[in-house]
Amino acid sequence: MNNNTLDGVKMLHHDEMRNYDRIQGKIISVIMNHGCKIIETPSFEDYDVYQHFFPHLRQQMVKTIDTDGRVLVLRPDVTLPLVETAAREFPRQDQLLKFGYVSTVFREYFGRSTYGKDFLQGGIEILGDSSPECDGEVIVMAAEILKAVGVETIRIDMGTAAYTQALFDGLPLEEEQKDTLRMYMADRNLVACRKYIATLPLTGDARRALEVLPVLFGPYAQTLSKARDYSINSGMLNALSRLERVYDYILYAGFAGKIQLDFGFANRLDYYTDMVFKVYVDGALYDVIDGGRYDTLSARFGVDRPACGFGMNINLLYEFMSDAGLLADAEPSFQLAVSYTASDQTVIRDLMNWRARGFRVAAYPDSSFIDSRDYSIHAIYRNGTYYKDGKAMTAEELEELMRRL
Amino acid sequence: MAIHIALAKGRIHKAVMKYLQESGYEFPTYSEDSRKLIFEDSKSMLKVTLVKSPDVAVYVERGAADVGIVGEDVLVEEASGAAVYEVLDLGIGRCRMAVAGIAGKKVDMTRRITIGTKYPRIARQYFEQNHHSVDIIKLNGSVELAPLVGLSDVIVDIVETGNTLKANGLEVLQYFMDFSARMICNPVSFKIKYSEIQQLMKVIQQKELEV
C-alpha cells in the first residue's frame, strides 16, 4: 500500500477544528443578525450548467460521474445553485431574499505558503434589492465579519463595473477590440494595454480615460474626483453618483475609514454589473473577501431579480489569523485524564457525573501511553482512591481543581 | 514602505543592479560575483532577492516579493496564467526565439516533425498557429545536439549571436518572436505600494532613456 501522496489535502486536527468552529460561529452570527437565512447548496452540481453559466471555472472544477453516466461537479461555488434554486422556489420578482452560508467549495486556492484543493467559503447573497443601500450593507457585513473574528486592520477596495461599462459603451470600437482591451485590463497588463490603446482610433478624452483606468485607485475623495474628471459620458457620471450613495451607507455604519476606491477591477465584467469590492487584511498580499452586484444572472433562470453578495475564503483568513497570532491557543482535549490498573463502578460513576456537569474527562488503562499535552490534570485511580502527584484525592477535590482551570 | 524585488539571476539581475546603483541606490553587501542571494540598500528602501528566472513569477504571485524582473520568454513559457500584473517593458535583455535546423538540410514540413526545445509551450504555440502538427521533446540544455544525433528534426531556442548554432553546424530557419525583460508586480502590492513602485519604474525608465 502506497502512502497518501495527494497534494493540497490534509487532515485538520482538534485545535484547527476548534478554531474553524469559532470563526464559523462568528460569521454565522453576523450573517443572521442581518436577517439572512442560512442555507447549504447540494454537494454535487450538473457539469453542463456550470459549463454554460460559469465557463471560466471549467478547468478548475472537480468532475465526477454519476451512476447513470451523467457528469457532475463537486460544488465549485455557491452563488449559481443558490440563484437558480431561488428563481425556481421564489418566483416573485420583488421578493427580498437574504441568504448566508458556510460551505466547502471544491476549487484550488493558493495562499502565501498554503495550497489546497478545496476551501471553506463563507458568504451572503441578497436578492431582490437593487438599492445602493443594499450594496452598502453587503460591504458592511464583510467588514463586520472580520471585526467579529478580531481582524481589525483591513482595507476595502470598492469600484464599479458600471463606470467601465459606460466608458466602453461610448467607444467607437468593434466588440473584438473591446474584448482585447478588457482582457489586458483584467490582467492589468499595462505594457500590452498601452501598446494596444496606441493603435486604436480614439479621441484624446477616451484615450486618456482608458489609459488611466487600470491605475485609477487610491483614497476615496481624491480618486472619486479624478474619476469624475475622466468621465466622458453621463453613464460614467451616474455610476459615480450611485457609488457615492453606497459610500454614504458605509460612512454612517462606521467603516468609511477602511474604504479606498479602485476603478481598475475589470475581471469578469460580464458578470458584475455595478459595485464590486475586495477586502484585504493587513500584511497579506491576497484578498480574503470579494463580491459585488450581479443584476443579470437571475434573469437567465427566468426571474429578473437584482442580486448582490460576496464570498470569503475562510482558509485564507485562517492562515492570516494564524500568522498574526489571532487564533485561540491550543487547549488539552482532557481537563482530567484518569489512568487505572483496574476500573470499577466508582470510577465509571464519577466519570459520568463529571461529564454531566460539563467537564471533559476520560479514563484509560495505565498500559496506554498518553501525551502530556493532551490533558490539564492527570490522576491515577487505585482501589477506590484517586492520586494526583502521589497525593490521595477525592472525586470532589479533583472536580474543584478542574473548576479552577 | 520598502519594496522587495525578485530579480532573475543572470544577465537581467546584473543589468538591473547596475541601473539601481547608478541611480543612487547603494547595496553595501552586493557585488556581481558574490554568492549572497539577498541584499538591502543602505536606506532600506529596496530589498533585492536573486532567484532562478522561472521562480520570479512564483515569488511575486505568492507575495514573497512585491515586484519581479524577468524575461518575457520565461513569463510566457513558465508563468502563463500567473496572477501578476505586467507593468513595464524594460527594453533590456532582448533576445529572439528561432527555429533552427541542420545547415543546408531541407526540413519536410508536410509531415509531422519533431522539435527539441527548452520552451515546449512557446514552440507548440508557434507551430500550431502555423498549422503544423508537431511532437515536442522537452530538453533542459544543449538543445543544439538534438538534430545532430537524430533526436529531433529542428530545435526552437533563444538565439543571441548565432555562434553556438554555427559551431554545431546549425542555421536559423525562422526568427519568430522577440522578447525583453518585463517588470511584474503582485496585484495587492501594486495598490498598497503604488507610489514606491511608480518611483522604481521611473528610475528604471530614466536609465533606459540614457542607454
Automatic annotation (TrEMBL), chain A:
Pfam families associated with the record: tRNA-synt_His (PF13393)
GO molecular function, one term: catalytic activity, acting on a protein
Source species, domain of life: Bacteria
GO CC, any one term: cytoplasm
Pathway as given in its UniProt record: Amino-acid biosynthesis; L-histidine biosynthesis; L-histidine from 5-phospho-alpha-D-ribose 1-diphosphate: step 1/9
Localization (cell): Cytoplasm
Main location: cytoplasm
Entry binding sites for L-histidine: D77, V78, T79, R107, Q121, E125, Y271, Y272
Ranges where the Class II Histidinyl-tRNA synthetase (HisRS)-like catalytic core domain occurs: 11-315
Function: Required for the first step of histidine biosynthesis. May allow the feedback regulation of ATP phosphoribosyltransferase activity by histidine.
Family that this chain belongs to: Belongs to the class-II aminoacyl-tRNA synthetase family. HisZ subfamily.
Further information: This function is generally fulfilled by the C-terminal part of HisG, which is missing in some bacteria such as this one.
Assembly and binders: Heteromultimer composed of HisG and HisZ subunits.
Name of this chain's protein: ATP phosphoribosyltransferase regulatory subunit
Lineage: Bacteria, Bacillati, Bacillota, Negativicutes, Veillonellales
TrEMBL record, chain B:
Single GO MF descriptor: ATP phosphoribosyltransferase activity
Swiss-Prot/TrEMBL keywords: Amino-acid biosynthesis, ATP-binding, Cytoplasm, Glycosyltransferase, Histidine biosynthesis, Nucleotide-binding, Transferase
Protein name: ATP phosphoribosyltransferase
Domain spans labelled ATP phosphoribosyltransferase catalytic: 53-205
Coiled-coil region list: none
Subcellular location: Cytoplasm
Enzyme Commission identifier(s): 2.4.2.17
GO biological process: L-histidine biosynthetic process
GO cellular component terms, A-Z: cytoplasm
Gene: hisG
PROSITE patterns: ATP_P_PHORIBOSYLTR (PS01316)
Subunit structure: Heteromultimer composed of HisG and HisZ subunits.
Reaction catalysis annotation: 1-(5-phospho-beta-D-ribosyl)-ATP + diphosphate = 5-phospho-alpha-D-ribose 1-diphosphate + ATP
Protein's pathway: Amino-acid biosynthesis; L-histidine biosynthesis; L-histidine from 5-phospho-alpha-D-ribose 1-diphosphate: step 1/9
Family annotation (PANTHER family): ATP PHOSPHORIBOSYLTRANSFERASE, ATP PHOSPHORIBOSYLTRANSFERASE ATP-PRTASE
Domain of life the protein comes from: Bacteria
Predominant location category: cytoplasm
Record's comment describing the protein's domains: Lacks the C-terminal regulatory region which is replaced by HisZ.
Described purpose of this protein according to its UniProt entry: Catalyzes the condensation of ATP and 5-phosphoribose 1-diphosphate to form N'-(5'-phosphoribosyl)-ATP (PR-ATP). Has a crucial role in the pathway because the rate of histidine biosynthesis seems to be controlled primarily by regulation of HisG enzymatic activity.
Lineage of the species this protein comes from: Bacteria, Bacillati, Bacillota, Negativicutes, Veillonellales
UniProt keyword Repressor, yes or no: no
